[in-house]
Design brief:
It is built from one helix and five strands. The chain is an alpha+beta fold and 81 residues long.
Amino acid sequence: MTRNLPVLTFHKPHETHDTARVTVSIGGANIGRIYPFDDGRAAWFLDLIHEQGTAKSVRAAEATVADALGRWMELAGLVQS
């Protein structure tokens, strides 16, 4: 049986200002968000698995969200490492 892995997408607004929210989605369904702070750090919220935290940057928050979602998918038996 072949399973298609979901594609994790980070939708950044068209505006260039740093305070815009980044939406996290899978298959068009919003599952979380990232809020940049003025000092470069970012808060992230992954609603699908009820996790949240802060990171040193938006890019670091994206990596943390992807890692957290991957761990959850493995624990749920949706993927194998």
